[in-house]
Amino acid sequence: MSILIKNGNIITATDNYVADIFIEEETIKAIGKNLSITATETIDASGMLVMPGGIDPHVHLDMPFMGTYSSDSYETGTRAALYGGTTTVIDFILQKQGNSLQSALQEWKNRSDNNCYGDYSFHMAVTDFNDSTKKEIKHFIEEEGITSFKTFMAYKGALMIDDRQMIGLMEEVKKHGGLINVHATNGDMIDYLVAKHKAEGKYSPLYHYLSQPEITEAEASERFVDMASYTGCPGYIVHLTCEGALNAVRNATRRNQKIFVETCIQYLIIDASLYEREDGAKWVMSPPLREKKDQQTLWAGINQGLVQVVATDHCPFMWEQKLMGKDDFSKIPNGHPAIENRIELLFSEGVNKGKITLNKFVEVASTNAAKIFGMFPKKGTIAVGSDADIVLFNPNETHTLSAKNHHMNVDYSGYEGWEVKGKVKTVLLRGKVTIDNNKCKIEKGFGKFVKRNKVAQTI
Ligand code: URP
Ligand code: ZN
Ligand code: ZN
Predict the structure, then answer these.
(1) Which of 107, 132, 178, 299 stands the most exposed, by the fewest C-beta atoms within 10 Å?
(2) What domain range is 98 assigned to?
């Protein structure tokens, strides 16, 4: 099977040029102007942007959390991702405290094996670091191809680890060439503020926001980068939302640390005023949405190279599930849906509004995640030898986001009625057309697990 994509405007993190792409089986075999090669299928990409498949390194599919499960399965979540131009996702395995990492991996495999439409990998969330977990780290990096380890400095009593565990884990991960991801907010402070607000009879979604002020994130981010500096372990802060936290990273870069930052599309474009709405629970996530001044800091951080990735933290719940917390904000399952909307929103709000260039768009939506998480150049670029993960994107088509037409398994949209300019038209994954003109062309099980390299090999 071969495909020739003709006359597209190819955009990578560094280039922008019109050429043809020849694909054989799963791989890009040639790129050039007016290629005279006969292929089984020819796609005319005139007028289209042709970019590498999006990579969303922060999603939670079918995940047990806060007494329920996130509502997108591996099937519905990875299919919705493809509709939105994301060909690879990295999901999170959660260790059960007291159990091994290996048993958690098995549990996650049971839910994901043969169920994915798009390609996927896992981060391993270590919620209980001890002598026995320590022995498993090398195996995960060297045998399983799972080279990043997630830690939580919050969700006290459930997922949170203390600083002693964090330092021990960092030393072990560093030794074997891995990376530590962190949810960096101060769990004790948040716990205190949640209890205080409830004791004062303050139960609405607004108090979710007020229980996690900027200082809780700035403090934990600073502590995390200090521990990473001490141990020499590369670190990646997930879903960074605010100025205070980014300033902690800015300081760390002065001592030449390997600290990477991810923000999420929602933190760039919507703000905390939504918590005052009756349906504010739709945007209850951790950390919460912030202020307009933080959005400016984050866009600037992207252009300064301090923020390398724009992900989603896709963690959807049906409205019925959100109602678990109708009388108490602390019982609202945390998370919001965006896996399908990320690329179109980033293009529409970022590129079209002059906040980022086309190359920066590709860098933060795909290339940097591939590099940081050990998948480059197989994923994250359009180059000879790379997987043919390619999105044909119409920069001029306008459309309206809505729960009525999205493919995520969730009965509302965080962006209902949002007008976007720019639409994903055709998506190839490993040389196969998976989405074309709003139709899915593959079956579940097409998506493959991606074994990742050691971090040191790609950054
Ligand atoms: O609200 C969120 N972010 N839910 C998912 C879990 C996490 O903290 O990433
Ligand atoms: Zn988190
Ligand atoms: Zn998350």
Answers:
(1) 132
(2) 53-372
Quick one: average pLDDT of 404-414?
98
335 lines ligand 1 (CB under 6 A): yes
Q: Which of 241, 284, 285 to mutate to test the pocket of ligand 1 (most atoms within 8 A of CB)?
A: 285
**Beta strands 2-11 and 16-24, pairing class:** antiparallel
171-178: average pLDDT: 97
Collapsed DSSP state (helix, strand, coil) of residue 188: helix
Ligand 2 centroid from CA 231, angstroms: 23
Judgement on whether residues 325 and 433 belong to the same structural domain of the protein? no
Q: Are residues 183 and 198 in the same domain?
A: yes
CA-closest residue to ligand 1 atom 9: 313
Residue 338 lies in a domain: yes
Tell me: do 313 and 402 sit in the same domain. no
- For ligand 2, the distance from its centroid to the CA atom of residue 184, given in whole angstroms, is 8
Residues 6 or more apart from 3 whose CB is under 8 A from it? 22, 23, 39, 40, 41, 42, 43, 388, 428, 431, 433
Ligand 2 centroid–CA 433 distance in Å is 33
Report the CATH number at residue 172.
3.20.20.140
Residues 65 and 32 in one domain: no
Residue 334 beta carbon below 6 angstroms from any ligand 1 atom? yes
Ligand nearest to the CA of 240: 2
> How many angstroms separate the alpha carbon of residue 315 from the centre of ligand 2?
10
Same-domain pairing of 143 and 291: yes
* pLDDT of 10 above 60: yes
Q: pLDDT at position 457, please? A: 54
Q: Are residues 191 and 335 in the same domain?
A: yes
> What average pLDDT score do residues 236-259 get?
94
User: What is the tally of structural domains in the chain?
Assistant: 2
pLDDT in tens, 265-312: 999 999 999 999 999 999 999 999 999 999 999 999 999 999 999 999
Ligand 1 contact via 313 beta carbon (within 6 Å): yes
Residue nearest ligand 1's atom 3 by CA: 286
User: Within this chain, do residues 154 and 278 fall inside the same structural domain, yes or no?
Assistant: yes
